[in-house]
């Protein structure tokens, strides 16, 4: 049952969704959040080769990479209470604006009438399908899922829609490793930092077993060390996330097997990746060797199962050089060839959290026929004026 982790893979929002609701809500990004320092590159020889995460350097855009580096130069923001707070804090905003958030209600299809207009979604509730009607349907399920799986077959063949799909590729898949550690961040020497480790560049063209031992990019971070509320909630414990990129095809042969029942061969392939990633982690943090209490790893198939990324993508549609060509940018919009159906999220803009937020702004602007970036600029001015009034 795909689309299982359905914390609203499609958000059905009423037209009058008050995205620009001005009353300030408690923000997970409040001023006293930790500001982790810039990402740290430990191998100086490969520093020059390092380009945007999630895209092969040879195919990535320099200006996008510059934006990413600039974003981190002053440090990044981290939500208090870790990343799940982003969803948790968003729900009351949606509800205040007349929306409803449904979980365990995977969307099965987008309802399209005989005139080709979207008018709602069909969601699964237990064994039944329930239709939910709406004047506007906004899909955050990604362009591939929305067009190739959720739209009815006769709509899928619309030329405009096929033209958009032909301009995009699936982004790179991810392999993730979650580590539970015995010890506080002080005891373990964990800091609010991201490591991007690039020991080799022989990988994606390699056979999977060779690749597993030559992982070229390992991203290492400790969410618990970034979260100022962590110590109160889980005293004496820490965690770590380690990410690598991985080809979907390496794991594809197990795609029809049930999650956590994919057999010995799959598990042993996974463990080669895990051992290799752990080795890199322990080079940076040798003190963690005897502190590991839990290891849990996921392949592109895991992403496919839990977050319905069609090929285990880390960042949706690939944001390579071809993605940022003017004709592609002009073609991929929040508005779709199906009236009343809009796309939001990373495929409308770019991958990563800022990309998703901008995708949402672009989408809401399209739905409301108003440029919300102007509203945002005015709001920023107001807040600044307010702040300086308070200081005086
Ligand atoms: C965690 O570390 C503490 C202190 O070093 C130790 O007493 C405890 O036994 C450890 N727990 C586990 C599960 O290893
Ligand atoms: C300005 O400050 C007042 C009083 O602190 C507050 O009620 C209001 O929400 C603030 N407005 C903005 C735009 O931040």
From TrEMBL:
<comment type="similarity">
    <text>Belongs to the flavin monoamine oxidase family. FIG1 subfamily.</text>
</comment>
<keyword id="KW-0732">Signal</keyword>
<keyword id="KW-0256">Endoplasmic reticulum</keyword>
<keyword id="KW-0520">NAD</keyword>
<dbReference type="GO" id="GO:0001716">
    <property type="term" value="F:L-amino-acid oxidase activity"/>
</dbReference>
<dbReference type="GO" id="GO:0005789">
    <property type="term" value="C:endoplasmic reticulum membrane"/>
</dbReference>
<dbReference type="InterPro" id="IPR036188">
    <property type="entry name" value="FAD/NAD-bd_sf"/>
</dbReference>
<keyword id="KW-0325">Glycoprotein</keyword>
<dbReference type="InterPro" id="IPR052206">
    <property type="entry name" value="Retinol_saturase"/>
</dbReference>
<keyword id="KW-0274">FAD</keyword>
<feature type="signal peptide">
    <location>
        <begin position="1"/>
        <end position="22"/>
    </location>
</feature>
<keyword id="KW-0285">Flavoprotein</keyword>
<keyword id="KW-0521">NADP</keyword>
<keyword id="KW-0472">Membrane</keyword>
<keyword id="KW-0443">Lipid metabolism</keyword>
<protein>
    <recommendedName>
        <fullName>All-trans-retinol 13,14-reductase</fullName>
        <ecNumber>1.3.99.23</ecNumber>
        <ecNumber>1.4.3.2</ecNumber>
    </recommendedName>
</protein>
<comment type="similarity">
    <text>Belongs to the carotenoid/retinoid oxidoreductase family. CrtISO subfamily.</text>
</comment>
<dbReference type="GO" id="GO:0051786">
    <property type="term" value="F:all-trans-retinol 13,14-reductase activity"/>
</dbReference>
<keyword id="KW-0560">Oxidoreductase</keyword>
